[in-house]
Amino acid sequence: MTNLNHYAVFLAVAEARSFTRAAERLGTDKGHVSRVVSALEESLGVVLLARTTRSVTLTPAGEDLAASVARPLADLERVSKSLVDRPVTPSGLVTLAAPPDIGRTVVAPLLPAFRTRFPAVRLRLVLADALVPLADAKADVALRVGKVGEGGVKARRLGELEAAFFAAPRYIAARGAPKEPRDLGAHDGLWPARSRKKSFATDATPPPPAIECDDFGALLALARAGGGVALLPLHLAQRDVAEGALVRVVPEVVLRGAPLFLVTAKERPLPPRTAALRDFLVEHLPTVLASTAGRRPRAAP
Questions:
Q1: Which of 66, 85, 104 marks a domain boundary?
Q2: Is 189's pLDDT higher than 90?
Q3: 41-45, 107-111, 228-232, 242-246: which range is least confident on average?
Q4: Cα separation, 75 vs 4, whole angstroms
Q5: In the chain, N or C terminus with fewer CB closer than 10 Å?
Q6: Residues 6+ apart with CB under 8 A from 214
């Protein structure tokens, strides 16, 4: 089957009566134009152009072909341009995968605003700690902590998660508040084992926790119940601090954690609905992360 572009190149030569002028119009070189026309002639089994050193003229077969393809090619170009220029309203289903604590405390509160902006887009939120490939999770967009994951994806770094120490007011009333990191050894600690959870690691070896748990949601519940001083990501503790359920202790200590990445397939272009969610999260998540740490956001790279 002849490449449709070959007819467009032939028509440019037919209209210009020149390989050189046709090449200039098409933004290519004369040799390429000549090869395309020769290939078209060979595929059709006819001579379309009579070439001399001074001129290019159409043969009867060339006249017939030029007359036949001019209108369809013009219509095709017009339709193509209208499709490119036509505004597209994002619509359809988009699946977003995220770690549970990020999904519940950071992403979920943003999604109503996204739906207000794009009411024709439906969302499916998948929460899982495991790093599942996009295809396996049937996800269009994923948020990942620390690692981008499989190859063949496009990742954007949105910011860095941070953690600090928190305790319930009733625990502080009963046991006092630690003032310095070295005071933590005299308190009931609530944090992951260093060997298992390295996202928020201190330079010094922390004292053994009274209750060891790798799930920050459980550590948050323990802290609310007055179980001790908990190491918690800032985004996870923010609401409880605002409501007075938790108080930050040893406030000068901030543990830098793992970067947060937004991941999409390398497909270009992304469907409008997927691109809309990606752009919305890139716009808002750095601000949310920065606000939990009490600083101004940096633009996402």
A1: 85
A2: yes
A3: 41-45
A4: 13
A5: N
A6: 192, 193, 196, 197
Look at the chain and report how many structural domains it folds into.
Answer: 2
Is residue 78 domain-shared with residue 117, that is, in the same domain? no
pLDDT of residue 257: 75
Same domain, 54 and 117: no
**Backbone φ and ψ of 269, nearest 5°:** -80, 160
Q: Comparing C-alpha atoms, which of 267, 284, 200 is closest to residue 237?
A: 200
- 107, 138: one domain: yes
Inter-CA distances, 197 with 146, 179, 255, 257, Å: 12, 24, 13, 11
**What is each CA distance from 195 to 53, 182, 200, 205, in whole angstroms?**
80, 20, 11, 11
Residue 51's DSSP bridge partners are: 56
Domain limit, last residue, from 52, 85, 118 = 85
Q: What is the CATH number of the domain that holds 231?
A: 3.40.190.290
**Phi and psi torsions of 281, nearest 5°:** -70, -40
Q: Is the pLDDT of residue 1 over 70?
A: no
Q: Tell me the residue range of the domain where 301 lies.
A: 87-301
- Domain co-membership, 248 together with 151: yes
Give the pLDDT confidence of 72-129 residue by residue, as tens digits.
888 888 777 766 556 678 999 999 999 998 999 999 999 999 999 999 999 999 998 8
- Quote the CA–CA distance of 12 and 26 in Å, as a whole number: 8
- Per DSSP, 153 falls in state E
Q: Does residue 233 register a pLDDT over 80?
A: yes
Alpha carbon distances (Å) from 7 to 15, 45, 56, 167, 218: 12, 14, 17, 74, 67
3-state secondary structure 84-136: HHCCCCCCEEEEEEECHHHHHHHHHHHHHHHHHHCCCEEEEEEECCCCCCHHH
Q: Which residue(s) pair with 247 in the sheet?
A: 167
Q: What percent of the chain has pLDDT over 90?
A: 45
149 and 26 in a common domain: no
In terms of domains, do 204 and 278 share one? yes
What average pLDDT does range 177-188 have in this prediction?
91
